[in-house]
Amino acid sequence: MSLAPRLDLRQSQSLVMTPQLQQAIKLLTLSNLEIEAFIGDALESNPLLELGETPQAERGAERGEGGDSDVPETPREEREADALIAEGAGQSDAPTDLASAALEIDRDTGDGSWGAADGSGGGEDEGFGLEQSTAAGISLSEHLHAQVGAAASDEREIFIARAIVDRLDEAGYLAEPLTEIAAALGVPLAEAERALALVQTLDPAGVGARDLAECLAIQAREADRYDPCMARLIDHLDLVARGEVARLRKLCEVDQEELVEMLAELRAYDPRPGLAFGTREDGAIAPDILIDRSPDGTWRIALNEATLPRLVVNRPYLVTLRDGCRDRDSRSWLKDKLEDARWLIRALDQRQKTILAVASEIVTQQEGFFLHGVSHLRPLTLKQVAEKIEMHESTVSRVTSNKFLHCPRGTFDLKYFFTSGVGGGEDGEGASAEAVKARIKALTDAEDAKAILSDDKLVDLLKAEGFDIARRTVAKYREAMGIGSSVQRRRAKKLAAIG
Questions:
Q1: What is the mean pLDDT of residues 428-443?
Q2: Contact 304, 284 (CB under 8 A)
Q3: What are residue 289's DSSP bridge partners?
Q4: Could you read off the pLDDT of 405-423 as tens digits, one per residue?
Q5: Nearest-CA neighbor of 421 among 468, 465, 387, 351?
Q6: Cβ pair 169, 215 in contact under 8 A
Q7: Is pLDDT at 241 greater than 60 in this prediction?
Q8: Average of pLDDT values for 277-282?
Q9: What 3 state SS string does the chain have?
């Protein structure tokens, strides 16, 4: 065997992901708001790109006003991709009406009403959406800082009070020990205590508290209800949580009627006053997909154009640059920019088509949910959707990441519709885990204070309704939803009954 160096030529084949393919895959995982930021970067780096026209719905309204609405327009999906690029059309022009027979409403049920478009779909399953409302326009810290200057007596007190405000958590509590704050600021503990007392006088009442009892006490003082009886009640919140009414009456030295009034007053206080204000990072969820039901019973599925900018090729500028390119390097640069622009438009177009395909299949598979609520949610996997739309499972996974769907029942993460099946039913596919959770919540909410349902009883009731699941599964789902045990619920309902 020769040990001398030599050159060999070998031929091999391999699959390599091009940068364009990697970018296209990345686009699938981005939400519409992230796509908007991505498009902003593309506009800065490629002079041939620009934002397109107004959404098609607005153009349609303008045509109606202009009297040109009688001229039929060729559907976008029937034209060549290059023609679309030349016109600067975005994928938001993709068809949004799905009239498939599989999506027809079941008229035998007689359920023709879906609720208002604000998410009040009605029915037993309200409240499971992910709709989020933004809090106040300013943060808690900004709200408190605006009050400190007027409430403090001198600059030193203002300085310490502002330092305390900066250390409050989002709920308005001071978690850091006051001794450590005083040491960090280099001030006597007495001055730090006076500054903390000043912070506790600010709006909203209860901020600056170091624990729940102090937070409620501050609010009771603000309402002029902090008498010795209320003080003892607040000092024994553990007895309130356990529902030990007899001991509370003895400790507070009040009768049943007075205790009921005190408990009602206590419930009216806000245990986390700081949450009434937002933070700069918080924001409302912007849905990527909009779903509605037309009068004829078909589903309308559209991309949210409000968060989806439209890219076009700036053809007049392209012609101007082409006429001015005299050397080979300039022509090569212009060609590369044009190819990049066309590729990006095609990639965005394909992304929107893929999202619509996945969303339409979700509507097909989970039509019962959209009609009747979470109790009709079916078990569904990524693989099932991938097989139906003839795509890879990983593609469906990317499409459903960071995407939200808005329907009359609320706003939901696309991942919400993919749930495992539990308890084999008559059809053999079982029930959705979310449907089981919804039924457990409904049963526990409706139970009587004198007949609290144990986990074993919940299992029996669920089995009678066709949910064949184990007791440990019921306990797991109950704890995941924050529903207490039968003992805890009995105490809570007993306490609520006397109030």
A1: 76
A2: no
A3: 303, 405
A4: 888 888 888 888 887 766 5
A5: 468
A6: no
A7: yes
A8: 52
A9: CCCCCCCCCCCCCCCCCCHHHHHHHHHHHCCHHHHHHHHHHHHHHCCCEEECCCCHHHHHHHHHHHCCCCCCCCCHHHCCHHHHHHHCCCHHHCCCEECCHHHCCCHHHCCCCCCCCCCCCCCCCCCCCCCCCCCCCCEHHHHHHHHHHHHCCCHHHHHHHHHHHHCECCCCCECCCHHHHHHHHCCCHHHHHHHHHHHCCCCCCCCCCCCHHHHHHHHHHHCCCCCHHHHHHHHCHHHHHHCCHHHHHHHHCCCHHHHHHHHHHHHHCCCCHHHHCECCCCCCCCCCEEEEECCCCCEEEEECHHHCCCEEECHHHHHHHHHHCCCHHHHHHHHHHHHHHHHHHHHHHHHHHHHHHHHHHHHHHCHHHHHHCHHHCCCCCHHHHHHHHCCCHHHHHHHCCCCEEEECCEEEEHHHHCCCEECCCCCCCCEEHHHHHHHHHHHHHHCECCECCCHHHHHHHHHHCCCCCCHHHHHHHHHHCCCCCHHHHHHHHHHHHHC
Q: One-letter amino acid identity for 336?
A: D
Q: Token digits for 272?
A: 């986390």
Closest among 352, 349, 345, 353 to 314, alpha carbons compared = 345
Phi, psi of 115 (to 5 degrees): 100, 175
Q: Return mean pLDDT, the chain.
A: 75
Q: Check residue 358 and give its pLDDT.
A: 92
CATH of region 421-498: 1.10.10.60
Quote the CA–CA distance of 388 and 261 in Å, as a whole number: 60
Residue of 371, 471, 353, 337 lying closest to 105 (CA atoms): 371
- pLDDT tens for each residue of 37-64: 888 888 888 888 888 764 444 443 333 3
Q: Indicate the pLDDT class of residue 429, thresholds 50, 70 and 90.
A: low
Give the number of residues written for the chain: 499
Residue 478 has pLDDT above 60, yes or no: yes
Rounded distance between C-alpha atoms, residue 494 and residue 490, angstroms: 6
Q: Where are the domains of the chain?
A: 19-103+286-414, 140-276, 421-498
Percent of the chain with pLDDT over 70: 78
Task: Tell if the pTM clears 0.70, that is, is over it.
Answer: no
d(CA 393, CA 106): 30
